[in-house]
Amino acid sequence: MWRGRTVAVVLPTYNEKDSIRAAILEYVATGFVDQVIVVNNNAAPGTSEEVAGTGAREIFETKQGYGHALMCGIDDCTADLIVLAEPDNTFTGQDLIKLLAYSDDVPVVFGTRTSREFIWTGANMGRFLRIGNWAVAKMTEVLFNTTILTDMGCTYRLFHRKALALIRPHLNIGGSHFGPQLLMEVVEHGIPFVEIPVNYRARVGVSSVTGDLWKAFRLGLRMIALILEYRLGVHSKARSLWDPRDNIRAQPDVVGIGPAEGAHSTLGLQALAAVTPRERNLRGEEDSLRLREAALQLREENIRRAEKPGPRG
Predict the structure, then answer these.
(1) Lowest-confidence range among 83-92, 132-141, 292-301?
(2) What is the pLDDT, as a whole number, of residue 112?
(3) Sheet strands side by side (includes 193-197)
């Protein structure tokens, strides 16, 4: 659970028998995950035995494809915060905390694997894949005037339930380019999002897609075609846009400090005294009182400094 919201991790699996158990336990070890849903998408023999005893719930999707598997997991999930990831050792459970932290401000958080400092030795992120994902992301950013995008193919993502419920009726791609459709629907619905760097490690086993350079190239072309289709209106249909009133970040509510008290008494105080209703609910009344006491102490200190005579010339 994260700040009163339940957290679920959805892991689609096809060829991850040798890594899935460790992946599940790594997410559970963070202490924030309430539920792990493993979607067995005609997975390798022995996968179910690896999942057994981890606390994860295994469900089955017989229609082959990354998109089919994730949509199955999404439809089965009831958590407030839904994280989509991979059980192949490429992503870390520790980075889940990053996604959760940013979920306090935006309803959708995307990961990016293109920051060199976060690419581990042995990771399948050579120059071709890194520059290719970056270039397609930048094309999308320019065509749709989005916030910064640097990775079109990262499969580590977090959604608030309301955001995912809004776009779910429009998700219909069962293959590997389901990921870009997720982003396109977020953009088309006007849902606020942010992209953050995540660690990218060496995969256990061989990917059925990016493990083959030619398959990866064809997937990249399919992604570009999908993005252009959205830009040209091929996927234009009636959509309910994101309501700004549902934005996660609340406007600060400054208490007990007014402009008449002087600029010196407000420096640095708004951040301490701005206790929003959401913060009161998540942190509790005790934390709210502690923030107010800190604000008052800082205010008194600033007043004393302002009244203290300066050095004489």
Answers:
(1) 292-301
(2) 98
(3) 57-60, 35-40, 7-13, 81-84, 157-160, 108-112, 193-197
Task: Answer yes or no: are the C-beta atoms of 211 and 124 closer than 8 Å.
Answer: yes
Give residue-wise pLDDT tens across range 4-58.
999 999 999 999 999 999 999 999 999 999 999 999 999 999 999 999 999 999 9
Both tokens assigned to 196: 């953050």
Task: Determine contact, residues 156/84, Cβ cutoff 8 Å.
Answer: yes
Pure H helices in the chain: 20-28, 47-51, 66-76, 96-102, 127-144, 161-167, 178-188, 213-231, 270-273, 277-307
- Other CB atoms within 10 Å distance of the CB of residue 280: 14
Kind of pairing between the strands at 108-112 and 81-84: unpaired
Q: What is the pLDDT of residues 160-173, one digit of tens each?
A: 999 999 999 999 99
If one counts every other C-beta atom within 10 angstroms of the C-beta of residue 56, the result is 24
Q: Which residues pair with 159 in a beta bridge?
A: 82, 108
pTM, whole model, 2 decimals? 0.77
Burial 204-220 (b: 16+ CB within 10 A, else e): beebeebeeeeebeebb
Looking at every residue in the chain, the average pLDDT score rounds to: 84
Q: Are 2 and 28 in contact (CB under 8 A)?
A: no
- What is the CA angle 88-91-95, rounded to 5? 155
Q: What is the pLDDT of residue 237?
A: 83
**Taking a C-beta distance cutoff of 8 angstroms, is the pair 74, 185 a contact?**
no
Place of tokens 């089919």: 68
Ranges of CATH 3.90.550.10 domains, the chain? 7-231
Q: Which CATH architecture has domain 7-231?
A: Alpha-Beta Complex (3.90)
Q: Is there a contact between 116 and 186 (Cβ–Cβ < 8 Å)?
A: no
* Interatomic CA distance for residues 297 and 118, integer angstroms: 41
Reported as a single tens digit per residue, the pLDDT across 184-232 is 999 999 999 999 999 999 999 776 555 567 777 888 899 999 999 999 9
